[in-house]
Write a structure and sequence with these properties.
alpha/beta, six-stranded mixed beta sheet, five-stranded mixed beta sheet, 13 strands, globular, binds 5'-O-[(R)-(carboxyoxy)(hydroxy)phosphoryl]adenosine, binds zinc ion
Length: about 350
């Protein structure tokens, strides 16, 4: 089964070619530089950039894989959730192409693709299905933060989610308050690695709440007030590093403690994590230490598979087909608000 997969839900234009479960190529054209000037993703600009880059990136994926579009047995594209103008370009362009070439076409849920991305082995470039165990999965991206119980492959339900900002949004917005360039998450991570996480204490929202929902907007507000009160701290590099480490510690503390509690309560032996924020070194170390202390195993998405990419879209499509999903041409349009729990398994 040869699959061409497309991802265009936000600010990465990505394509991948999968051949019998092996990732042959997965080029990504990032729009970060374009949006940096505006301090965030501008949906209209993202759509125009996808329009410009999609066909070259798809051609690059096919060339690197040594394949032609006519070799493909299936075309898969992210159908939602995401920015409507961005989704529209990738999804409909490749739906139309599939229609014209008389190939099956399936739409993939972006969160579900992140959810199973920790199972992509970066060495073998295959899914590591054999080591699957029931797990609690933390999806932490710029658009969402959620905890999902995965009982068996492709059988999952959401047990908690953010009620306001996503963790990535909190990283990006607090970084902006500190005057750091967009996207702030990786820059804040870098500065935090040299700072003292105990220098300042920021709130750990909803940590004491018995449920598994998150809230990050209060933390962002508290950072705003703190900076208004102590503007000189941001100007001093040493203090800036301490501020970054302290903000990161607050976000990571909530994410790690809630994830561990969910795993212990659900009596699973494994935690998985994915999405752009799972690149964060503080989060990776915090999850590893907490898993070690509680006898849990940990599997975090690796390298390029943490942030948005088309390999995870194609691998999920492959996993679904392997599990008996039907090969057909879907006629429906994009689903910008597609919730993971309700219908990702349909
Ligand atoms: O999964 P992703 O690429 O796109 C969405 O689906 O949203 O995640 C992007 C988010 C951004 O908010 C970015 O700042 C954050 O992931 N991010 C990080 C790090 N790398 C990416 N946040 C904290 N530390 C990092 N190292
Ligand atoms: Zn994403």
């Amino acid at each position: 089964m040869k699959i061409l997969a497309i991802e265009s839900s936000c600010d990465e234009t990505a394509a991948a070619v999968i051949d019998d479960g092996l990732i042959l190529s997965d080029p990504i054209a990032s729009q970060i530089q374009l949006h940096a000037e505006y301090g965030g993703v501008v949906p209209e600009l993202a759509a125009r950039e996808h329009l410009k880059n999609l066909l070259p990136v798809a051609r690059q994926a096919l060339d690197r894989a040594g394949k032609r579009i006519s070799d493909m047995d299936l075309i898969a594209a992210t159908q939602g959730p995401g920015l409507p103008p961005a989704l529209l370009v990738g999804f409909h362009a490749f739906q139309t192409l599939a229609f014209a070439l008389d190939k099956p076409f399936i739409g993939v849920n972006h969160h579900e693709a992140h959810l199973y991305s920790p199972w992509i082995d970066p060495q073998t470039k295959r899914l590591n299905q054999n080591s699957f165990q029931p797990n609690i999965s933390l999806i932490v991206s710029g658009g969402h933060t959620m905890l999902v119980k995965v009982d068996s492959p492709l059988n999952h339900h959401v047990i908690g989610a953010t009620i306001d900002d996503a963790a990535g949004e909190c990283f990006d917005k607090t970084a902006k308050l500190l005057g750091l360039p967009y996207p702030g998450g990786p820059v804040l991570d870098q500065l935090a690695s040299k700072g003292n996480p105990k220098a300042y204490v920021f709130p750990r929202p909803m940590l004491k709440d018995p449920g598994f929902d998150f809230s990050f907007s209060g933390l962002k507000t508290s950072v705003r007030y703190f900076i208004q009160k102590h503007p000189a701290l941001v100007e001093d590099h040493r203090h800036l590093q301490d501020l970054c480490a302290s903000i990161q510690a607050a976000i990571v503390d909530v994410l790690v403690k809630k994830t561990i509690r969910a795993a212990l309560q659900s009596e699973v032996a494994m935690i998985t994590a994915s999405g752009g924020v799972s690149c964060n070194r503080g989060l990776r170390n915090g999850l590893q230490e907490a898993c070690d202390a509680n006898g849990l195993s940990l599997r975090i998405a690796q390298g390029r598979y943490c942030t948005d990419n088309a390999a995870m879209v194609g691998m999920l499509a492959a996993w679904k087909i392997d599990s008996g999903a039907s090969l057909q041409h879907i006629e429906e349009g994009i689903r910008p608000g597609w919730r993971l729990e309700t219908d990702a398994n349909e």
